[in-house]
Each structure stands twice: as structure tokens, then as C-alpha cells.
């Protein structure tokens, strides 16, 4: 897919102004993306559930640029405040999109963005943030140039752009679940963008809950970006990529047939493998906290005692994602409150679930 288009420029003198706003959710990977090459291309395919309430709201206002510099003209606010660190990342991202969207150079852009969850919660927000921004940009393209018309093309382009901002963001474009990365088993899958996978999954997975247990709220000591980089010299890297492909194959079968036990086995192994890869990087690092382990032990015991299909996964951080079918919610809620909340920072958790995907919002 080549989205580069030097022709995508506006008629000088008749550049309109406007604004768009999108809300885009975070996602939780079951088979993890860990390791990349080239321009944000994954070393292996990954699968994630799209979340519902953990989301980013982004508004992009645009108008003709006053100065005629060749770079991006951006004003940026996060939660109503200037954040030079975030602004820099967004600026660099927009800059990198100039071969695709040369017209961005002609615009003055105001980006206002906020998360539905506290930033200090320490949960990864690049997936929701970058996908919300990508959706705004493709929407602006559609307003200014009448393209892409077709909804599938719109989503594919948004996913492609989101990927350039943050790999995992490519998967947040679709409701329920998504696959990013080429796998021979799923036609149309690609390393360049994610594709929707709701139709490949048994209905039980559409009901899944994800309770995000905020074990620690301290900033990550090693960013995902740096973590991916360390995979380049990890002696287990090649085996890992082969393993991820094999697990993807098994996961797809479990998702299709509704095999919860197999799903859970892969889900938990992937979480531990991700952290094992961090521990075997050079230099090695450790993102789990004592309470991460305490929660894992508790979840395994609860599963053994009740027989309920309740599984954990982890992102590149200490927080636990507790995944289970929706019909268990009343019971699991009690368990979480009694046993797991005492392990969380300030007894905080986010009760989330599989969601319907991004939403275009009114601009006031
Ligand atoms: C552990 O997408 O945050 O969450 O592409 O460098 O922005 P960049 O990395 P990022 O990596 C996420 C890794 C993960 C697993 C996953 O979501 O698949």
C-alpha cells in the first residue's frame, strides 16, 4: 500500500477552516507485538481486544497557515495544558506524515486532547492517542479532498497512519478486536495496517470484560519504544517471533471455536513471555511489581477454586488486565473488590470491556 501522494495540496488562497473530533479507545493485546523493524513494521502478527471506556478524545482544528514555513504549525494542549513533551511527539509524527499528507504544511493546526482515564494511572495511552489523532487526520482529508469515501478505505488509512504514530494504535481503529501483521491464515492481514477480526471470533469473546488493576502509577522506567529496540539484540528474538506466529495460529482457532481454556493458556503465556523478553534484554529490566505477582497468584488460585475462565494479561508495565466472559461479571466483581483491590495503588481499577470502536464526536 503506497499512500504517498505529493499531489495532495490545497489551492492557495482558498484554504477553508474547520474542526473534527474523535474518541478512540485503547486496546489490550493477547498475542503481543514486541519487536519491530523498518518504519514501524512488526516482527510478528498480533491480536487485541478493543476496549470501551479507556479512550482518548481528540479535537483537531485547522485553518490556513499564516506563516509560510515548510514545517508543521502546531498548537497542542493535553487536558487543557501545554505539554511540550507530548507536543514534540505529535509534531514529529505529523512531520513524518508529510509524504502522505503534504497539505498539512499549508495548515495551522490546533490539537486538543484528553484521556478518559487519569494520565497518572500509568496505563499506556499511545494506542488511544495516536489512533484518535489518525482518525481526525483522515477525516480532515475526507472533508478537504472528498477521499477516502468508502468506510473500509477510511479505516484502513486511519490504521496505517496510527501505526506510524504507535504500532499498537493501528489496532484501535476497529470495534471488538483487530489483527495487525501479516499472517497467511487471514487474508488481507498486513504489516502496514490492522484489519477488523470480530467476524473471526466466537460471540463469547464479544462479551469479554477487562478489569485494569492499577498496581502502580509510577511512570514506566523503560518506554515501549526502547523496549522494542532492545529486541534487536535479544538472543531469544528469532525464537520469540516464531513462537508468536505459532501462538497466533492457535489463538485464531481458539477464538473461532470459543475455546476459553486454550485462549487463556495463550493469553497468560504471552504476558509472561513479554516480561521474560524484557528480563533477557541487554541491559535487562523488570517492570513487574511485587503486587503484580501477588495478583497473578490470586487469579490462578481463584480460577482453580471456582473453575471460572478468568485470565490475566500484562502490557509493558506492572498493571494487570483481568479478562473474562461478561456473564461472570457480578461474581468476578466481588472477587476483584475483595481480593485484588487491596493490591492496587489507592485501591484503583478501571472496569472496562470489549467495545465498539472509535466514535466521531460533534465539534462545538
Ligand atoms: C506491550 O505500540 O506502544 O503493548 O510502536 O513503539 O509506539 P510503539 O510501541 P507500542 O508497543 C506496545 C507493546 C505492547 C504489546 C501490544 O500492544 O501488542
Descriptive overview:
This protein has helices at about 85-95, 125-145, 150-165, 205, 225-230, 235-255, 260-280, 290-305, 330-340, and strands at about 20-30, 35, 40, 45-65, 75-80, 105-115, 175-180, 195, 210-215, 310-315, 320-325, 350-355, 360. By secondary structure, the chain is α+β, with helices and mostly antiparallel strands. A hairpin with a 3-residue loop joins strand 2 and strand 3. The radius of gyration is 20 Å and the shape is globular. Bound molecules: ligand DP6. The site of ligand DP6 has 17 residues, from helix 5.
- How far apart are the first and last residues' alpha carbons, in Å? 35 Å
Into which percentage range does the β-strand content fall? Answer: 15-25%
What sequence of helices (H) and strands (E) makes up the elements?
Answer: EEEEEHEHHEEHEHHHHEEHEE
Low-confidence stretches: none
Number of strands: 13
**Main pleated sheet:** 7 strands, mixed
* Helix-strand category: alpha+beta
Cα gyration radius (Å): 20 Å
How many H/I helices?
Answer: 9
Shape: globular
Q: Which ligands occur here?
A: ligand DP6
Helix content: 25-40%
Average of per-residue pLDDT values: 95
